[in-house]
Every structure is written in structure tokens, then in C-alpha cells.
Amino acid sequence: MTAHLSHTAQLLSSREIAPNIRHFEFAITDVEKFGFVPGQFLSFVAEVDGKAITRAYSIASVPDGNRVSICLNLVDDGLLSPRLFAMRPGDEMEVKGPYGGFIFREKRDTVCVATGTGIAPFRAMLRHRVAEDPEHEYTLVFGVRHGHGLLYREEWERMAEEHSNFRFVPTLTRPPEHWAGRVGRVQPLLLEAVGERRDVAVYVCGLKEMVDDVRAKLQDLGFDRKQIVFEKYD
What we know:
globular; 6-stranded antiparallel beta sheet; alpha/beta; single chain; Rossmann fold; Elongation Factor Tu (Ef-tu), domain 3; 5 helices; 12 strands; 2 domains; 6-stranded parallel beta sheet
């Protein structure tokens, strides 16, 4: 595991994957191999108006040499996201990490719940785990407002085609007329995916309100706190 030291991240490429949301590919230039556990995050550090500003972003890729990906939305009045969005290939920024305990625990049937850019850590976690654990079922419930917000949708659909133990359940709260999928918030779909079972693990990532509501609903159903692993964004 890489020590929690300061590193230099050099931008290799970035691309828009939804309005005001970009996928960034970085190389950690001071190491040949950057070790982390899928689900962990990096702290990006930059000086803004004479102050060191730090923001945490989940790693959205599996370990691959010294390369890491992140996914984030542009916050117009934010202190760090506008700077990241303005970066060009070759530009560098300080990062620290990896940090965080939002990682898969023991192998068991699992339901993952994400909203918005909370999908980022699952892109690393599920790509890593689904293929190596064909004995267990993995369901991803992903909720956003509009269809264009279903980040990495083609990847999830391809994963579902290639792995019989993975199911992708997208839902929209503001669907277009032609949308034939699920409609509404993620909470009912999570409860549907869990059904009568109380032996599944649940991993939740997204805005605080959704995460807190999901945790409360599961605990009301009798889930042990240890079965619910979560990470929430402000």
C-alpha cells in the first residue's frame, strides 16, 4: 500500500461524460505503481488565494500501474473543481492518499446504491470484484434525475451482459417520455433488491440525505449496522 505521502498527479486526459461532469485520467508521476484498494479516495491539494485547499475525490478506476481516474462535477463557486476543469494534459496537481475505508469487505451477495457522482468508487469496486467473485450476486442501483446523468452507463450494461452475477438497475426521477426503465428514487429499488433477505451486504454512496435515509430504512428492517457500509458527500 502506498504510504500517505504527497504525490504529483499529472493530467493525461479528461472528457465530459455528462453536462458539467468530467472523467479525468491522471498519472502519479513519482511512483511506478500506485497502490490503493478499490473504493478509496485521493485528496487533491491546490493553493487558492494564498490558502491550501483540499478536496477528496473517489478513485474511479482499478489499480493499474501509476494511473488513477476520478469523476467530478463542476461547482461554479467551488474552490477546486473549476481549477481541475481548467487543467490541460500535462498540467500537474498535488495529491495525498490513498485514504478511506469505503471498500468491499468479505465476499457475499451485495447490493450497491449510488446517486450522482457517488457512482465513482463503485466503478473501481465492482469492476474489481464482480469478475473475481462469480459465486456471489452483485446488484447496482443507480439513481439520477435525467438519463444523461447515468454515468458510465454503457460500461454497466456491458458488465451485466458479460457477468451473470451482476445486475444493473438504473432509475430516473425526471425521465423523458421514451424512458422504459425504472422511475423514482433509489430507496424503493434497494428494498426491492433486498427483498426478504437480511444476509446481504449493502454499500451506499451519494449525498448525505439519501445515505442517511437508506441507512435508517435498512436498520428499521433489522439490518445490522455492520452490514451497511457507506460514504456520503456534502
